[in-house]
Protein: Electron transporter RnfD
Organism: Petralouisia muris
Amino acid sequence: MKIQPDNEKLSYSGRIDWSNPKEPVFVYPCTSVGMRFTGNELRVSVKNHGAYWDNYLGCILDGRQSAFALPQRGIASIKIEVKETKEQEHEVLFFKRQDACHEFAFLGVELAEGAELLELPGKPERKIEVYGDSVSAGEVSEAVEYAGKEDPEHNGEYSNSWYSYAWMTARKLNAQIHDIAQGGIALMDQTGWFHDPDYIGMETAWDKIHYHPELREEMAWDFSRYTPQAVIVAIGQNDSHPEDYMKEDPDGEKAVTWRNHYQSFLGKLREKYPSAQIICCTTLLEHDEAWDQAIAQAVREMKDERITQYLFQRNGKGTPGHLRIPEAEEMAEELAGYIESLKIDGWE
């Protein structure tokens, strides 16, 4: 029994390219499709387009999580073991573990003959959106034995957006999430680490579905499709590359330029989301506190009571490597508590 991607009983989340309803394209981490079904057979098909790293499809079937390697280019048809249950009903979530190191088209699933596709519960009313880098994407999060340490050698196998602080925060808040996160990205073009040597910044990527030039032509996002009540801006970690000018001269021309661009970015978000609470932060990943001070100044000068800054207890001092699962949990617990304290309009 073939379930097409445009079946109304499938539940999607994230910025998705719906240009071809039979092949919706997943780009950002945390992008997902969920379903409930009967029967003991399940096969999923995706068409992958990779740029770097090894690429994986995330899957949670009846609460059990697994990952499946994808070819760098081409179609993967993956048979997934379905264990018998007393109810004979199953729930599965397929999701994007990684950022735009790759993108894939979801081609649908196959169930056993005579199986039934069931309705899923409605989505939460709460919605958050995150703008961030590799930490927000959950990069290298599964390397738990390296908590508090530099990253191990890897090729994408430890990256898992399910264990990002971003998705953890959304689950704690019972909220939908769009995770606009890309490893290595900084605020401005020609800084950071993403798309070396022609670095692409969040100023370019933030309003796009497709933004990686090696994968597909740029495509604008239709902001009317999703309106978050809370927006997290976790930018400022990678902006010190190739020059840490904020640390060296926080009142210098380059530092002033960055703060102006940061305020401009916040202003663009405010234009899209007039009523949203915008929370500005960095992460536990080690960085100079001059960047947090710059964010504080930018937020203060905005004079918008619904734009605030949050500093974590171990802000910029938690780890020299990427956040592992327990460190992301620490961030999520703090951030969810802070967001709840803001008493956001429309949140019960």
Observations:
- The CA atoms of residues 192 and 241 lie 5 Å apart.
- The chain has two domains: 2-118, 126-341.
